[in-house]
Amino acid sequence: MAADRTSGDEIGEPASRKAAGERDEWNTNSGRGGDVSEAVVMGAGSWGTALAKVLADAGGDVTMWARRDELARVVDTEHENPDYLPGIALPESIRATHDPEAALRDAGLVVLAVPSQTLRANLDDWCSLIPEDATILSLAKGIETGTLMRMTEVVAGTTGADPRRVAVLSGPNLAREIALGQPAATVVGCTDHDRARLVQKQLATGYFRPYTTDDVVGCEIGGACKNVIALACGMAVGVGLGENTVASIITRGLAEIIRLGVACGAKPATFSGLAGIGDLVATCTSPLSRNRSFGERLGRGGSLDTAQAATHGQVAEGVKSSGSIRELAARHGVEMPLTDAVDRVCHEGLAVQEAIEQLLGRSTKPEYRHDW
After folding, report:
1. Topology annotation, domain 2-214
2. Binding-site residue set
């Protein structure tokens, strides 16, 4: 089932209103009327479905692959994804299929919308089907368990694609809000500027504004780590703590993310942008955030199993990535106390209240150091 689940960070809830109309003042490059290649979204979770809608609204030809044949048929004929974005009408131009070979045959842009920890297994099945000149765009946010690889590294290593063909999308992008046409911005990270600009053009609509960057490392470290910090925020809320605590966790969490990112080769400025503080704030504060809500359930005394059951069997990405991020930090000699605490709560049986006490009991120090 994992391949159909969103690789973003959102709880699927019924839509309460119809999609908003396009707002042209947000749109400096809509992509309409241009030479837009065939886009294929591999994954029919909430984020994959929302991005397929964005691509179609931008004027592209879009095919969406779903792991389950019955879901593909519903999306293709009823133009709605009742499992992950119920109540939201999808453009009739979106085609859906269960056949990966048919989906990928003419792809110019391949969007990987599957969870981080299943990405490698999915690519093992798909890599021979991906056209050699296609741009590959990863939506997954995580650090692979065991290898400690970022998602674009997994993509390049598994498919054999030149890393310059592989891009990442990151930003404050809650799928349901985007599917409703609410204005949002994002960042396309790619070391090939021309490819980044092409993806930017394919995604630009009257409500979705993409920027570009060559800092792929920063985008991916920010995207993976923010899920863990959102779990910490949720845990704090779950035990009854207030906004001061949440704001403090977000701020100190950002410091952790910057330290690790810089150690891995990222640009510090990236974390002051959409892929850093933007994504972090949205994930840590929104009731739509699966990681935030998952953390709240843990803070109220729930187990991983009960929290997973409450989110329709979907484990938050931060739970799966906390250990690998902790290992990556240790490899680089980076101190990440919040991440350590979250991982110990999730996987070592540490009580949330005890984790809070241990964090507050740490020695005092300056807010900033020369190395962040």
Report:
1. Rossmann fold (3.40.50)
2. 43-48, 67-68, 84, 141, 171, 175, 226, 279, 289-291, 315, 317
